[in-house]
């Protein structure tokens, strides 16, 4: 079985500050890992994903994440927060085991203060 | 062109009614999903279809019945709606195995 834990249901940063959203996963098979963003009253948009290869993954809007197998982590970072980054962020894992379903974490709401 | 579309966007109905939500994707994908997002924003998979065949059924009450008339469409029919069914329902589609899933805009269902 797979699971995702996102540490911190709410994260608040100042505009221009570093954004760090934490994600730890559990998977019995090599995972595929995803970060999705959900703006208010909208669907989910893929920010970035890790499948195989390079462990540092760059995504849209200046976000990146690093896959650390030894720590079972896939934390999301952005060097400088922008007001438009305020949204809900979801980490998700998929893998083999009979299905390719996405298992989501509970989400982290990012607030950016002026 | 919207890649994954859902109708309606909002659905308000009374307990006990039957309602349907429709999903269409124009990405040429073989696999489609239904997810439920509850009031705490938690997302959980409900169903998955691959080329019109049911692949995943995640212990969802049998009041929920997905139907896939063709691989571009996956509809969700809900019988005897209950208060606890109030949620946002997202459709998603996927090309090859373990590829990115593309999500629709969601349908906000409110059961009164």
Features:
heterodimer, A: 114 residues, mainly beta, 5-stranded antiparallel beta sheet, 11 strands, B: 112 residues, 7-stranded mixed beta sheet, 4-stranded antiparallel beta sheet
Overview of this protein structure:
- The complex is a heterodimer of chains A (114) and B (112).
- With 114 residues, chain A is mostly beta strands.
- Chain A has strands spanning 3-7, 10-14, 19-26, 32-38, 44-50, 56-58, 64-68, 73-78, 87-94, 103-104, 108-113.
- The radius of gyration of chain A is 14 Å and the shape is globular.
- The model of chain A has no long low-confidence stretch (mean pLDDT 92).
- In chain B, strand 4 and strand 5 form a beta hairpin.
- By secondary structure, chain B is mostly beta strands.
- The mean pLDDT of chain B is 92.
- Chain B contains no helices and 11 strands.
- The radius of gyration of chain B is 13 Å and the shape is globular.
- In chain B, strands 2, 4, 5, 6, 9, 10 and 11 form a 7-stranded mixed sheet that branches. In chain B, strands 1-3-8-7 form a 4-stranded antiparallel sheet, with no helix packed on it.
- Chain A binds chain B through residues 32, 34, 36, 38, 42-46, 49, 51, 88, 90, 94-96, 99-104, 106-107, 109, and chain B through 4, 31, 33, 35, 40-45, 48, 55-56, 58, 90, 92, 94, 97-98, 100-106.
